[in-house]
Design brief:
Blueprint (H helix, E strand, L loop, with lengths): L1 H58 L2 H15 L1 H4 L24 H11 L10 H14 L21
Helix pairs in contact: 2-5, 4-5
The structure holds heme C.
Length: 161
């Protein structure tokens, strides 16, 4: 009887530290695994945001957008508005004969273009193409500086004269 009690007590005494060691090990293991999981995630986030900012900084310089817009203009607008925006079948869009001030600001002009142009297929261009062609027209009409940065939230601050 006594021996059995001693054995029981011994196994209990052994049992508790063992449990503590086991628990500690498992917890440590988890922490390590979590860290391992976290670090690659945060690294790839950094890479993504870096590459995004690189792409954006190229695209947000008005001159670069206008260059792309010129290609859009030649393909989708020139047939009616003239090769250089001087007018033809439809109103002039570039130069002193153009009358874009009635759209108040760049946002108004963008809405006009994206919802009604090209006249033969309204709304068929991507919004990015609409924005690029908008900046082509704005730059050609000296409404913006080529080196300025594109701010999608500030279009209504570009007033048209
Ligand atoms: C098939 C002929 C045609 C094509 C292609 C076309 N337009 Fe037009 N556009 C017109 C006509 C016609 C008007 C006048 C009627 C109107 O405002 O809807 C006009 C009007 C406009 C106006 C308003 C001008 C003003 O003085 O009020 C803008 C800005 C414009 N177009 C931009 C564009 C852009 C940018 C493109 C190319 C993405 C384009 N258009 C393609 C026929 C065309």
């Amino acid at each position: 009887m006594n021996k059995l009690r001693v054995l029981q007590a011994c196994s209990l005494i052994l049992y508790f530290p063992l449990m503590i060691i086991l628990t500690t090990c498992t917890t440590t293991k988890n922490t390590v695994t979590n860290n391992e999981n976290n670090s690659p995630v945060s690294t790839s986030t950094t890479i993504t945001s870096l590459s995004t900012s690189v792409t954006t900084s190229n695209d947000t310089i008005v001159e670069m957008m206008a260059e792309k817009g010129q290609i859009v203009y030649a393909a989708h607008c020139a047939s009616c508005h003239g090769e250089n925006g001087e007018g033809g079948l439809a109103f002039p869009l570039i130069g002193t004969k153009a009358n874009l001030a009635k759209y108040d600001d760049a946002n108004g002009l963008l809405n006009k273009i994206s919802s009604t142009m090209p006249k033969n297929s309204p709304g068929s261009l991507s919004q990015q193409d609409n924005i690029n062609v908008l900046f082509f027209l704005l730059l050609q009409n000296n409404e913006v500086s080529g080196q300025s940065l594109y701010d999608p939230n500030a279009l209504s601050q570009i007033k048209l004269n």
